[in-house]
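FORM 7B: Structural annotation worksheet

SECTION A. Query
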Amino acid sequence: MKILITGAKGFLGKNLMKALTDAGYDELFSYDMDSSREEFEGYCRECDFVFHLAGVNRPKDKSEFISGNKGFTEEVLQELLSSGNKVPVLLSSSIQAGLDNDYGRSKRAAEEAVFSYGRENSVPVYVYRFPNLFGRWSRPNYNTVIATFCYNIARDIPIRIDDREKLLPLSYVDDVTGQFIRILKTGIKLPAGEFVVFPPALIYERRLGYIADRIFAFKDAAFSGREPELKDEFEAKLYETYRSFLPEK
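SECTION B. Predicted structure
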């Protein structure tokens, strides 16, 4: 199976590329900002499945939300159709698609484009609305507050918390890529226009202050030469994320 991953060098894209390779998928088309137009057209022409992960969430100008989310999604779908290659598409969206802001509206428009493509061409499509994702290869001050906390705390850089009681919905990137591979292996088909419901057991809700306290505890344990006490599955995943941010020295 030939698989196209857009946004392949981003946080989710890099983790998916590794997960697919580990699962035995060896024909992966990696598309990102430095790819050429010729590569893009060739990938769309030859692929059997598309993971559309590329998008814009922190632009310099608000107009980039529409061009980077809705616009590029439509471009991918049109290129598939122009190539006569009507293949399944999985879109990585956000829970913010339900909000009335520039980012949310652009993600919702991208979702609608994918749903229309699926309905009009009788092709399976999958739209995941994710909460905040965390895990290795996330970028501090960009992808998630957990990445920022892990990076700063590991380097004795102060962190800022405006509301310790703020509750965050979170999912671990390995759980996400596992669900993606499940879609590939099972070929689950959904009624046109329906979202993929991410398993509630894989969505964690934790308060901002608690997250910071646990990461500080991980650091303290390391200085004491011991492994930290991990109370549950979430803390184990948080600890692995923290370890990925430790400086090599």
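SECTION C. Observations
The chain has one domain: 2-244. The chain has a mean pLDDT of 91.

SECTION D. Sign-off
Analyst initials: ____
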